[in-house]
Amino acid sequence: MKKKSLFGRAKSIKYSLLEARDMLELSFIRNYPEIVKASLKKRREEEKVKWIDEIVKLDKEWRVLKQENDNFRQRRNSISEEINAAKKKGKDASKLIKEAAEMPARIKLVDDEMKKAGERIVYLLQRIPNVIHESVPVGKDSNDNVEIRKWGKPKKPVFELKSHGDWAENLGLADFRRAAKISGAGFYFLKGKLAQLDLALQQFAIKTLAKKGYTLAQPPMMLRRQAYEGVVSLADFENVMYKIDNEDLYAIATSEHPLISQYMNEVLDEKDLPIKLVGVSSCFRKEIGSHGVDTRGLFRVHQFNKVEQVIICKPEDSRDLHEELQKNAEELFKELELPYRVVNICTGDLGMIAAKKYDIEVWSPRQGKYVEVTSASNCTNYQAASLNLKYQHQRKGELKRDYVHTLNATAIATGRAIVAILENFQNKDGSVAIPKALQKYTGFKKIP
Fold first, then answer.
1. Are 92 and 156 contained in the same domain?
2. What is the CATH number of the domain that holds 400?
3. For the segment 359-390, what is each residue's pLDDT rounded down to a tens digit?
4. Does 360 fall in a domain?
5. Which structural domain, as residue segments, surrounds residue 313?
6. What does the alpha-carbon distance between residue 44 and residue 205 come to, in Å, rounded to a whole number?
7. Partner of 367 at 20 to 30 A CA spacing, among 92, 155, 184, 415?
8. What CA–CA distance (Å, rounded) separates 128 from 226?
9. Rounded to two decimals, what is the model's pTM?
């Protein structure tokens, strides 16, 4: 039997998320455990394979308990009528009364067993990653990502390029020392033309995407945990997110998270899909990296500005829309005249949420290699199942409710784009030319 595409394109039911949903909905593991096991093995998460059998076993036990519980509750309701009828006829109702007295304890015992099994199922489900798409390359880490295409000609510097951090501080356009003094490492001040360049990049991306039908959205900068649990892996709460003390709030790591989670527990109408949004926000992340030439500057930081693309759609449309998001991002970097390559992210570098992901890596003349600047992910219905986000539609004359698919892609993360511009457009005299596409937003053609 042919494998079904996770993106709803192929016809075989074996790999269908249209019929079976993704593994966060228990029915997918129940009906297709071998598919989930195969995906886990490709992700090199063999230790989780045995969880699938445990989930299937617990699911069966829970459903038996549920039927038993329903029977007890039904008996509890009917026994009251039998007691009343017996008393009216003057019959001995002592056995029925005893049975009725024992019923709450029986129900509680089954309720407790159901709760224990259910909590274990949820615990395991929250730690099982999305089922990968068949086109994702199998690999251990980022070294195994597969290059798809390149654009532009990488330039080899004919003079020694200045570090973007030193260059910006020497011109008074950035201040890392004072930012570290008041906020710690991984923060910065942008000033003058460099701050204007940051805003220009945002405007450039926003207006380009608006012309393509994406609605601009500025989201809240904080999310409650319940909303956040629907769009990220649990590990992110410790490794990535900033928690607000004594509040059920987390600073957002990207605008994708509030833009998608805003629809939590909703049923959208088919006619309103796809929803296409372009979010702009500051982003806050704990991890900044601790190696290479980027440890000081704008590349790996705790706070940065980003323009993000988000789509919520029907399952059968997500594959094409994933390609659309990637195309949009590439068009932006072509307009910026920055050489880049596109890589298909391998299983070992994919993360829990995505079924498939592309990265754009821009050429860094100073490092002599390509460095990541954007990611575009198809999360299929992994987030939607966790958020209980569905859409209603007609199928064979019946009104159906199914989970949507969610997609996200970086348009421009301004700090990384600025670094790429400073390196690729730096002149021998230390000045930096502004890409033509940005000049109408900056009002100047070079820095200083």
1. no
2. 3.30.930.10
3. 999 999 999 999 999 999 999 999 999 999 99
4. yes
5. 142-447
6. 37
7. 184
8. 18
9. 0.90
